[in-house]
Amino acid sequence: MTPQLQQAIRLLQLSTLDLQQEIQEALESNPMLERQEEGEDFDNSDPLADGAESAPATPNNEESYQDTSYQESSAPTVDNLEEGEWNERIPNELPVDTAWEDIYQTSASSLPSNDDDEWDFTTRTSAGESLQSHMLWQLNLAPMSDKDRLIAVTLIDCINDQGYLEETLEEVLDAFDPELDIELDEVEAVLHRIQQFEPAGIGARDLRECLLLQLRQLPAKTRWLSEAQRLAGDYLDLLGNRDYSQLMRRMKLKEDELRQVIELIQSLNPRPGSQIEASEPEYVVPDVIVRKHNDRWLVELNQEAMPRLRVNPQYAGFVRRADSSADNTFMRNQLQEARWFIKSLQSRNETLMKVASQIVEHQRGFLDYGDEAMKPLVLHDIAEAVGMHESTISRVTTQKFMHTPRGIYELKYFFSSHVSTSEGGECSSTAIRAIIKKLVAAENAKKPLSDSKIAGLLEAQGIQVARRTVAKYRESLGIAPSSERKRLM
């Protein structure tokens, strides 16, 4: 592959946020590139032509939208120099199977991004607070002897991300040096102090202890508190098995009273450690915007996420001298790199627009009526429609997002396998999942639908799905089996 093709493929795989960072690095490293500021005149020209042939100007407002079709003017463009400015023609191609850095050592990817003047260590290396660091912060505020503090640090290291103590107290005790003369009672006493830390329920050894710890921190006037403590302490297995008749009999409660006790239990967090997130939030910027206008679905690239670039004509003018000096060679290389970078961006936007338009054309039913109207779609269908390879479609649909009136979706969301119908047609797996979710939402809570029953209801609608397939779709939706969905009204 030529370096140009390698760069185009790499840019095609980048998400919008990664692409913006790549563009910013290119702008900082290449003086030939500049960003088109809002309100400035812009000459849309062919970025690879040595002449001054001008392309049509970019349309504004409503004309910038296309009815599920590709819009070439949405891509970044570059101002070109007048014909005759070049005494030496810059090559349009580089040798095959060479790396970009072999020819141009000044590309953004080869330059360090941590400039001493602008490097922000906190911004680039900070992460969310971990559960252990949150607990150690509380430990530093607690008055404690040196021995107890050592025990507390060891116990905190044994707490997993869900907030549970993974090791037994005996195993924790064995980890200490015998010369410290630490006893099991001391380890247990320190654990009880840690269990008073936030979040409530931290440091529990099992679910029963976790729920009881959280119930003990509730106000004493909380309704049904004593009954909830009794249920969590003695009858948690019956609750897990949804054996409500046994619970009502053993706890001597009526159905409505038991329901309120269970609601109090369900308000607790069985995984208290999950409240402390160590990972940074991930933001999604849509690449494509879809909206309906005059009963037509219109598709356009997100211009705010696609900055318009061009070659700086002032710097480009410095290359007019036909000399072989180091400075002139450097500027010539920078100019060629800028032109190829812009061409790669154009190629990315062209491909993205073509693919998004074909997806919208194929999934109009989803945009109008929702998941139940989703049609079967595979990569081969789009690849055939746009005349590209399936691997290219896979790259352009990964980490690329479409903003629709129904929400923001990754382009891969619109692809799904199909199931045959009794009428000889096809139904997408996404539509079947939506139907299953709708059936479960409308089921009788006391008698939830089994997988076999759901398969029968789907068959009544002409969708031929096996029970095992229903179970697979149900699990992918995060819906529990019927035995676990049973609950009191």
TrEMBL record:
RNA polymerase sigma factor 54 DNA-binding domain residues: 329-487
Keywords for this protein: DNA-binding, DNA-directed RNA polymerase, Nucleotidyltransferase, Sigma factor, Transcription, Transcription regulation, Transferase
Chain intervals with Polar residues compositional bias: 57-77
InterPro entries: RNA_pol_sigma_54, RNA_pol_sigma_54_core-bd, RNA_pol_sigma_54_DNA-bd, RpoN_core-bd_sf
One Pfam assignment: Sigma54_CBD
Biological process terms in GO annotation: DNA-templated transcription initiation
Cellular component, GO, one term: protein-DNA complex
All residue ranges annotated as the RNA polymerase sigma factor 54 core-binding domain in the record: 121-315
Highest taxon, organism lineage: Bacteria
One Gene Ontology molecular-function label: sigma factor activity
Database matches in Gene3D superfamilies: Homeodomain-like, RNA polymerase sigma-54 factor, core-binding domain
Disordered: region residues: 25-94
Function summary: Sigma factors are initiation factors that promote the attachment of RNA polymerase to specific initiation sites and are then released.
Record family assignment: Belongs to the sigma-54 factor family.
Name by which UniProt lists this protein: RNA polymerase sigma-54 factor
